[in-house]
Amino acid sequence: MFSLEDKTIMFPYAEKESVPVWALLIICFVVPIFVIASISLSGYGYKRSIHDFHSGVLGLCLGLSMTIMLTDVIKVTAGRPRPDMLSRCQPPADAVDPRFGLTSVSVCTADIYSHEMIDGFKSFPSGHSSFSFAGLGYLALYIAGKIKMFDEKGHTYKGFLFAFPIIGALLVAISRTEDYRHHWQDVTIGSLLGSFCAYFAYRQYYPGLSQDSCRDPFLTRVAYCKKGYDLESGVISADSTIALLNSQQQQQPGMPKNLGKYQQDGDLDSEGSDLHTYSAENLMLNNTNSHNNSIPLSNDPRRHQ
């Protein structure tokens, strides 16, 4: 339903878009992957890491897929007319609104089942805006982590490096109003939606930008996938070397550093003075010293002293 006297939907229909869908995919998907690969695999200015590239691409795909899902669900549910709706509808020159109420698509002379007419009611939110801020916004966060933007050293160039992808997303979003494809409210909400999905996806794989370890992705998946390590049963295979997780937890008194989530709760010894913990040497297993296929942690004799 819409009004034939609504000035906000009387704009002309643009046959060619400033940023077509194929260009949007290149800008927001191909370009971020290329930049992530250049940083993580080149070894220039940052250590070469396949794991970093893998985590970076996974986060990008997660953010974009979430954005597409949420945007399409809202588009179909809201059904707001686009600014060029009347140009698509092509109502008769003498058509008027009912005295009490709005006009339906039955007044249109164009095929109401055509792609142009169906797409004419998918204005809210802007898909181009949400997709661009999800892809380029994620890229901006990735770059910010690599340059440690919030290291409290006052390097102004870091702010400009972070802003470049955001400017690209803004230009894509602004083009949607210039082409009369979206209202400004559609672009604003779409941009916020894409930014939220980008931040959510980034934090699934990387620490916060205020942390010293923001350059490196989380190592949880690497530790879980190590051959022979069964997290639930507490069995560590002697045939493989177990990598320590990067600890993000606050160090407790008496606990050795960099034990990550493998810190043991420990029990007080007979004198009640020392706390038993596993050091890096306890967790890093050497193949040459192994005699059994696996060593349950619960059978370690030191835990029963």
Briefly say what this structure is.
The protein has 305 residues and is mostly helical.
Structural description of this entry:
- The protein has 305 residues and is mainly alpha-helical.
- It has 2 domains: 199 residues, no CATH class; 87 residues, no CATH class.
- The chain has 9 helices and 2 strands; from the N terminus they run H-H-H-H-H-H-H-H-E-H-E.
- It has a two-stranded antiparallel sheet with strand order 1-2.
- Helix 6 packs antiparallel against helix 7.
- The protein is elongated, with a radius of gyration of 28 Å.
- The N and C termini lie far apart (78 Å).
- Keywords: Membrane, Transmembrane, Transmembrane helix.
- Belongs to the PA-phosphatase related phosphoesterase family.
- This is Phosphatidic acid phosphatase type 2/haloperoxidase domain-containing protein.
- It comes from Parasitella parasitica.
- It is a multi-pass membrane protein.
For the CA atoms, what is the radius of gyration? 28 Å
Residue share in helices?
Answer: 40-55%
Count of the domains: 2
State the major sheet. Answer: 2 strands, antiparallel
Strand content: under 5%
* Helix/sheet category: mainly alpha
Please write the string of helix (H) and strand (E) elements: HHHHHHHHEHE
What is the arithmetic mean of pLDDT?
77
Oligomer kind: single chain
Terminus-to-terminus distance: 78 Å
What's the total count of β strands?
2
Strand order of the largest sheet: 1-2
Number of helices: 9
Protein name: Phosphatidic acid phosphatase type 2/haloperoxidase domain-containing protein
Keywords: Membrane, Transmembrane, Transmembrane helix
Family: Belongs to the PA-phosphatase related phosphoesterase family.
InterPro entries: PAP-like, PAP2/HPO, PAP2/HPO_sf
